[in-house]
Each structure stands twice: as C-alpha cells, then as structure tokens.
Specification:
Elements lengths: L9 E9 L6 E9 L2 E7 L2 E8 L4 H11 L9 E8 L4 E7 L1 H9 L4 E2 L29 H11 L4 H6 L3 E7 L4 E7 L2 H15 L6 E5 L5 H10 L3 E4 L5 H10 L2 E7 L2 E6 L19
Length: 283
C-alpha cells in the first residue's frame, strides 16, 4: 500500500453464486467489509493492535484512548498521525507530556482481535471502572423509535457489505447526529465516541444506539464517555445490566420497531407500567 494511501472500507470480492433451484453456479461478486490491523502507539511506544475497519482512524484513536483510560479528555491528545503500511495502518498518538508520563507507568503492548473490547485487561482487578453518570432527563420513547426507524438507512457500509456494526449518537428528539461503522462492535463505539470528542458534543445532549448486543464493555465505554442512555438492538448480558444499574445508566435493549425493553433506569412515560405482561387470550 502506498505510504499516503488509505484502504477503502469495502471492496468487491469474486465469488460463485449457486442457484438453489437449478443447482447451477454463476460467476458473481460481492461487496465485503475490509478488515485490517490498526496498530496504536503512544509517543513511539507500541500499545495495541486492533483488527478493524480502516475508515475514520482518527476518531478511533480518540475514542480508544478515552475508553482505554489513557486520556480523560480530547485536549490530552496533542496530535494523531496515520501512516499506511503494507498490511494495515499505524496510528501514532502524541499525548500531552503529563499524560504521557502517566501512560508510561501503566504501559503494556498486546495484540487484539476483531471487536475485542477489553483486550488489554490481564486480571479482573484491571477491569476499567467508569464513574457513575450524571443524572439527565429521560429520553422519550418516541425519540428512541424515531432513531431506530432511520438507523438502517444511515448505515452505508453495512448496506454494501452486511458485515459491520454501527454505533450512533442521536439527539433527544431521535435525530441521528453522528454514526460510525466497523467490523468490530467495540470499534464502532470507540469511533463514535472519538468523533463526538473531537466535535465537542456533550453526551447529555442525546443517547447512543448500537446495532449489537449490550455487553459489559459496551456499557463501560458508554459510561466512560458520559452517556446517560444506551440502546442496543440485541439483548444485554447479566453483567451489562448489573454494571449499568450501578452506574446509573439507562439501558434499553432488544430494541425493535414494535417495542423495546428497559432493563435499568427509565424512559420518559406518561403512565406507570403494568405489573406484568398481559396474558394471552384463551383459544
């Protein structure tokens, strides 16, 4: 790969398409998501290699640095330099002097995997610990459903490849403000957080929607950024629910056009919930 040329986020791959009815095979091609190693270094010292989509590496650098606990704010990153290499991208991050000294004290280098959210954690004691999120007015259900209705049409890379996750930041009325995609669900969220950091967007101005399940790491990353509501298309894990509850984060999941389940916190509502789901009518 030329030094200043970045890879595309998708490419056309040749394939054979077999017709189920006739059994005949036809030469075809399909857009597939590009996955490459992205190597992060701080002050010239290697830190981690993540398998990721190649687009928006600067956003990835900011979000990854925040959710890994290397920085606490965008101002602690002085510069980001992206260098194309034969097999991937090298992302060289320059930290403010004081922050770099603290980083060296906890330095470690490792190799990650696609969508690995806690790759650098070596013991349970090293699990990241976000501070409880500040209270904010609950999101209206109508805003959540408005965001879900427009989510798919904003996933341009997934429309081509059907192989990537998305993380979106939505305003309090449900309008999608920023969306990032990646082969890794954690990477997509890191890229979203990085984009919001760089633009100075307050996490209290809206909510986050992810197209994946809600795991512990996704809750932790959202809380580290300061988000007050996380909505997941798929189901949550037990630890995600436990962690969201302890952090004061509203966690809604299994979000579909016809309904959503709220596991912690609350959405805005005009009437109290019933004690249980209505029983099915007898046949």
């Amino acid at each position: 790969m030329p030094p200043n040329e970045r890879p595309n986020a998708s490419l056309l791959a040749p394939a054979w398409k077999i017709d189920a009815a006739s059994g005949l095979a036809f030469a075809s091609q399909r857009a597939v998501a590009v996955e490459i190693p992205v190597a992060f270094s701080y002050g010239g010292t290697p830190y981690a290699v993540m398998m990721a989509s190649p687009d928006q590496p600067e956003d990835f650098a900011y979000g990854f640095s925040l959710t890994e606990g290397i920085v606490r704010a965008a101002e602690e990153i002085r510069a980001v330099r992206v260098v194309s290499q034969d097999k991937g991208l090298a992302v060289e991050i320059e930290l403010a002097p004081g922050r770099f000294r603290e980083h060296l004290a906890r330095r470690r280098a490792m190799t990650g995997r696609t969508s690995c959210g806690l790759c650098g954690v070596e013991t349970i004691e090293q699990l990241p610990e976000a501070a409880p999120v500040a209270a904010a007015p609950p999101i209206a259900p109508g805003a959540l459903f408005a965001a879900l209705a427009n989510l798919e049409k904003n996933q341009q890379l997934n429309a081509l490849t059907h192989a990537v996750h998305a993380a979106a930041f939505c305003s309090r009325d449900g309008a999608i403000q920023v969306l990032r995609e990646d082969v890794g669900r954690h990477n997509a969220l890191d890229k979203l957080i990085g984009a919001l950091m760089r633009e100075g967007v307050s996490p209290r101005d809206g909510f986050i929607v992810v197209t994946s399940r809600a795991s512990f790491e996704m809750v932790e990353k959202a809380a580290i950024f300061g988000a007050t509501t996380l909505v997941a298309i798929s189901a949550p894990t037990s630890l995600a629910i436990e962690r969201a509850s302890s952090l004061g984060l509203t966690l809604a999941a299994i979000a579909r056009a016809d309904g959503v389940m709220v596991f912690t916190g609350a959405l805005e509502r005009s009437q109290p919930p019933v004690s249980k789901e209505p029983e099915a009518a007898a046949s």
